Backbone:
C-alpha cells in the first residue's frame, strides 16, 4: 500500500464544463509522491494505451538566428543581458537551413525545428522564415519553429506556409515565473499559444526542470500544460543546462529520480501528447534515458546540438536504440 492521502484522487476530474479533464496541483503532487515503481508502472500503462511503447519520435533542432535576444530569461545563453561567450549571428540563409534539414532527414529525423533568438519576429524577418518552412516542408519533414512572441496575424502567415508545430514553452509555474524572467509575463506566452491555436497549428510547449523551483512548482507547471484545451501535442521536458554567465549558472538542478517523476507525471496527465526528453540529455547516462523512456518519454532531439548547447551524439543514440530495441519514427 502507498501513503497517498485518501482524500486526494489520482485521476483528473472529467466533470468540468465541456467534459474536459482537469487536473489539480494536489492531484499531481500525489502522483509525485507515489513509490517510484508504482508511478512508472502507471505511466507505462497510460503510455501503452496511446502509443507503441518501443517507438521514439526524433526531431532535429537548429538555431537559425543566434544570440542578441532582448529578453532576460535567466537560463538562456542567447540573452543580450547575460554575460556568456556566445557570439551574435545573423539569420541563416535559406539554402543553409535546407541543407541542414536534408542532412537531418538522412539521419532519421522526422521533424525539423528552427529556433530564432527574438522577443518576437519583425515583419521583415518573418518572410525568410516562411520560405524556410516552405522549403523544409517540401522535403517531407514535419516543421516546427520557435520565434518568440507572435503579433496578431503572424500565426496565420506561419500556418499558410505549412508550419506544423509552434514551440513556446511555459518554462515554469506561473508563481515561479518572475524569478526566472522579468521582461515579459507568462501570460504573454499563453497569449501566443492562443494565437497558434486559432491559426490551426499544433502546439509544442513544456518547461525546464532544475531552476530552483519546488516540487509544488513542478506539479503546477504540469497542471498548467495538462489543463490547456487541448493539451500541447508535444511537451518538451528540459533538464536545466547551467550555462556560465547566466543567472542560473549555479543552480543545483534536481536529482535523476525527480526528473523521471516529472516525465511520468507529464505522461499520465497528457496521455496523447509526445513527451520529449529535451535539453540536458547529453549529460544523462544510457540507464537514466532508458528509465525516462519507461516513464513515458517518447520523443527526443536528435543531433549534436540544441540551439547553443550540446546534445547526445547521433551515433550514441543509434547505439542506445539498438540496445533497448527502440524504433525511430
Residues:
Amino acid at each position: 500500500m502507498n501513503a497517498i492521502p485518501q482524500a486526494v484522487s489520482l485521476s483528473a476530474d472529467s466533470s468540468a464544463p465541456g467534459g474536459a479533464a482537469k487536473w489539480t496541483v494536489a492531484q499531481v503532487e500525489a502522483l509525485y509522491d507515489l513509490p517510484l515503481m508504482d508511478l512508472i508502472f502507471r505511466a507505462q500503462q497510460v503510455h501503452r494505451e496511446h502509443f507503441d511503447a518501443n517507438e521514439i519520435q526524433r526531431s532535429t533542432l537548429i538555431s537559425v538566428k543566434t544570440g542578441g535576444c532582448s529578453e532576460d530569461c535567466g537560463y538562456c545563453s542567447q540573452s543580450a543581458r547575460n554575460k556568456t561567450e556566445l557570439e551574435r549571428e545573423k539569420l541563416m540563409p535559406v539554402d543553409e537551413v535546407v541543407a541542414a534539414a536534408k542532412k537531418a532527414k538522412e539521419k532519421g529525423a522526422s521533424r525539423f525545428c528552427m529556433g530564432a533568438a527574438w522577443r518576437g519576429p519583425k515583419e521583415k524577418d518573418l518572410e525568410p522564415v516562411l520560405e524556410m518552412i516552405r522549403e523544409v516542408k517540401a522535403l517531407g519533414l514535419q516543421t516546427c519553429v520557435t520565434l518568440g512572441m507572435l503579433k496578431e496575424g503572424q500565426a496565420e502567415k506561419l500556418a499558410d506556409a505549412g508550419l506544423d508545430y509552434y514551440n513556446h514553452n511555459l518554462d515554469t509555474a506561473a508563481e515561479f515565473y518572475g524569478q526566472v524572467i522579468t521582461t515579459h509575463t507568462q501570460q504573454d506566452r499563453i497569449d501566443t499559444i492562443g494565437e497558434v491555436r486559432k491559426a490551426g497549428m499544433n502546439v509544442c510547449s513544456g518547461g525546464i526542470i532544475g531552476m530552483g523551483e519546488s516540487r509544488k512548482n513542478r506539479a503546477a507547471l504540469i497542471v498548467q500544460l495538462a489543463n490547456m484545451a487541448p493539451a500541447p501535442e508535444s511537451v518538451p521536458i528540459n533538464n536545466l543546462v547551467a550555462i556560465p554567465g547566466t543567472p542560473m549558472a549555479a543552480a543545483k538542478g534536481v536529482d535523476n529520480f525527480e526528473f523521471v517523476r516529472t516525465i511520468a507525471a507529464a505522461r499520465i496527465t497528457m496521455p496523447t501528447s509526445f513527451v520529449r526528453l529535451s535539453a540536458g540529455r547529453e549529460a544523462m547516462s544510457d540507464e537514466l534515458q532508458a528509465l525516462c523512456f519507461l516513464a513515458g518519454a517518447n520523443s527526443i532531439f536528435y543531433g549534436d546540438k540544441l540551439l547553443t548547447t550540446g546534445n547526445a551524439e547521433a551515433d550514441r543514440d543509434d547505439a542506445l536504440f539498438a540496445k533497448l530495441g527502440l524504433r525511430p519514427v
Confidence is low (pLDDT under 50) at residues 1-7, 15-19, 305-311. The longest strand covers residues 55-65. Residues 123-138 form the longest helix (16 residues). The radius of gyration is 19 Å.
